[in-house]
Amino acid sequence: MIVGLIVNPVAGLGGAVALKGSDGPDVQARALALGAVPRAAERAAAALRALRARRPDVLVRTVAGPMGEDSARAAGVPYRLEHRPAAGSTGAADTRAAVAALGGVDLLLFAGGDGTARDVLDAGPRPPVLGVPAGVKVYSGCFALGPAAAGATAAGFDGRTVDAEVVDLDEEGHRAGLVGARLYGTLRVPAARDRLSGRKTGSSAAPPGSADSIARAVVAGMLPGTAYALGPGATTLAVGRALGLALTPLGVDVVRDGALLARDVTEQRLHAIAMSQVTHGVLSVIGGQGFVIGRGNQQFSPRVLAALAGVVVLATQQKLAALGGRPLLVDSGDPRADAAFDGHVRVVTGHRESVLYRISSASEELS
Question: Up-side HSE of residue 48: CA atoms within 13 Å toward CB?
Fold first, then answer.
């Protein structure tokens, strides 16, 4: 089996440091200056290890250095270099050139986010592809649930494909709180719906007032002297409105006793707060995908999750019903931290309304 591999080494840099994306050299430089740690190569290596465990005969064709070679070497898989990008260059043009150089593989894996998916799409004719989620925002339907799912899906690929949508947000508008994903096209991906994350959907189907009803329930349950870290999402913004606070759109804000304690926090700041006082996370579910952790809220890192006193999950009944029985998902980047969530979680669905719903590590959804 011959698999291509392209890694966007700067994908996901802006998440934990509250930049809400990683597009552009200025944002990437700022993220690194704030202490961001690249994770795309590590996640690509995890996908390759899962692939080789099932297909020992696999040969990886890839790109020199951090755009693939480093991950293949870390995973211990046989590989062959097909392309060398310009020194120090990891832009969109390099991704497109790499796609062209890796034609003829059985399946092309790429590690990145929605911006990387757009670059793969723009490259023109290509083999079937599969995304290893490594970006801040992963709203397109061409990504596997997680790195392990990507490797398992690649190993079982039998040539059958389906079309998956590629969507992306304008990151400048995203940072300003203007959410509106645009459809750019489709990519052919393995026909393995149960291992694909699916495209993010909005909450327009929810009856008016649903989010406000959930917000009232959350506020009523807040304990005196306790901090609450409110993740991104329309439902958590409604919690802010119920408190009389204007929260950061798509950021993480911390409130205590009805007042804003910290605005638009980074992972480092959130960890410091959680270590210094009792703190609960308040997280909404991504529509259509079911992710609670790991998509757009990387501030909730494994060490932050370990420091939290608890997690409150919010979703409308319509959003849960749209999952069709599929579990809520956790993909923090640490399988052990994710596994701690396996089981069931109480989801607040309205004022004095909640349901017990299955939640799982994205790495466990392989059977």
Answer: 33
How far is C-alpha 33 from the chain's CA centre? 22
- Are the C-beta atoms of residues 227 and 273 closer than 8 Å to each other? yes
Report yes or no: 6 and 62 within 8 Å, Cβ to Cβ.
yes
Separation CA 69–CA 196 (nearest Å): 25
Instruction: Give the rounded distance of the alpha carbon of 74 from its chain centre.
Output: 22
Q: How far apart are the first and last CA of the chain?
A: 22
Is the pLDDT at 329 greater than 50? The verdict is: yes
Give the residue with greater pLDDT, 199 vs 127: 127
The single-letter DSSP state of residue 294 is S
Cα Rg of the chain, angstroms: 20
Read off the pLDDT of residues 80-120 as tens digits, 9 standing for 90 and up: 999 998 776 678 899 999 999 998 999 999 999 999 999 99
Residues 316, 47: Cα–Cα separation, whole Å: 33
User: What does the pLDDT read at residue 24?
Assistant: 64
CA distances to 55, 243, 271, 281 from 215, in Å:
48, 9, 24, 14
Q: Which pLDDT value is given to residue 172?
A: 57
**Residue 115, SS3?**
helix
The number of beta carbons lying within 10 Å of the beta carbon of residue 161 is: 18
Predicted confidence at residue 259, as pLDDT, reads 97
Distance CA 149, CA 198 (A): 13
Cβ-proximal residues to 209 (8 Å cutoff; 6+ apart), any chain: none
pTM of this prediction?
A: 0.88
CA distance 356 to 4: 41
Residue with tokens 């596994």: 339
CA atoms within 13 A on the CB side of 116: 35
How far apart, in whole angstroms, are the C-alpha atoms of residue 8 and residue 297? 20
* Cα atoms found within 13 Å of the Cα of residue 353, Cβ hemisphere only: 14
Helix (H) or strand (E) holding 343, with range, is strand 343-350
